Amino acid sequence: MTVTIRHVERSAGDYVASSKSLGGKATSFAYLREGIFGAVALLNFVEMLRGQFAAPSVEVRLLEDCIRPKNPALLEALRQ
Fold first, then answer.
1. What is the pLDDT of residues 33-54, one digit of tens each?
2. In which domain, by residue range, is 23 found?
3. Most buried residue, 19, 33, 42, 49, by most Cβ within 10 Å?
4. pTM score, two decimals?
5. Is residue 14 within 8 Å of residue 67, measured between CB atoms?
């Protein structure tokens, strides 16, 4: 299982972590802020996925490309 982290375009320190389910039919994601609380949120997200899917290991990747949200209201909802 792989968790992919991407920077949110035009934001200072905002990231989205995502992972497809093992069957590929669903995607889980978490909104993260740079800093210690973002690191704790990422760890909790990875551990939740590991437990939910009984994955023996989880690979975490930080990609260079940015996420460009099509709907700013969705991004604002995630921030809350």
1. 999 999 999 999 999 988 888 8
2. 2-69
3. 19
4. 0.80
5. no
Looking at residue 21, its pLDDT comes to: 76
Count of structural domains, the chain: 1
Measured on CA atoms in the order 44, 47, 49, 51, is the torsion positive or negative? negative
Domain-located, residue 74: no
Instruction: Specify if 24 maps to a domain.
Output: yes
| Euclidean distance between CA atoms 50 and 52, whole angstroms | 6
Q: What type of residue sits at position 22?
A: L
- Rounded Cα distance between 54 and 44, Å, is 15
Residue-level pLDDT at 77 = 77
How far apart (Å, rounded) are the C-alpha atoms in residues 48 and 3? 12
